[in-house]
Amino acid sequence: DNLRNVARALGKPLDKLRMVTLDKPRLSAAIEEATQLGVKVFALPDGDVAASVLTCWQDNPYDVMYTIGGAPEGVISACAVKALGGDMQAELIDFCQAKGDYTENRQIAEQERKRCREMGVDVNRVYSLDELVRGNDILFSATGVTGGELVNGIQQTANGVRTQTLLI
To answer: Counting beta carbons within 10 angstroms of the beta carbon of residue 62, is it exposed (0 to 12), middle (13 to 18) or buried (19 or more)?
Structure first.
């Protein structure tokens, strides 16, 4: 339903919608489902925060992003998306839901759920952008280390090194 809603909001048919995600086994079902709907899927090896920013830029290569990733990356992405005037939703899931229900993951998942309860955060609830980022005084800063679509990586110069930083 989300892809249909995004396509409708953008005034595009599904076969013209461009979705970015990560090329991870945990996302293979979502990639397959989007592809079956006719959506053009771009599966990146990494860079979920960068992809979030790119979906909000004018003349960007992507219309929508779907991924299962870490909570810190989700909040960082939400800050950039809100500062750029975009929109997003996020559902907090536990470690087993993200990485697989294995014995070694269950202890981590239970610790995460306990910590969330203590903080008053609901697992498996969909949060709006305004719930993820409550204020409007937002500063997003990204400095390239290895380089990518947003910023260049560290470059050696005659006098030291040069970095590139994006401020939003």
So the answer is: buried
**pLDDT per residue rounded down to tens, the chain (168 residues):** 899 999 999 999 999 999 999 999 999 999 999 999 999 999 999 899 999 999 999 888 999 999 998 899 999 999 999 999 999 999 999 999 988 899 999 999 999 999 999 999 999 999 999 999 999 999 999 999 998 889 999 999 999 999 999 999
**Residues with Cβ within 8 Å of residue 41, at least 6 apart in sequence:** 19, 20, 21, 31, 34, 35
Which residues partner with 167 through β-bridges? 141
State which amino acid sits at residue 67.
T
The set of residues, in sequence order, having a beta carbon less than 8 Å from that of 39 and lying 6+ positions away, is 3, 14, 15, 17, 18, 19
Q: Mind listing the domains of the chain with CATH numbers?
A: 2-137 (3.40.190.90), 138-168 (no CATH)
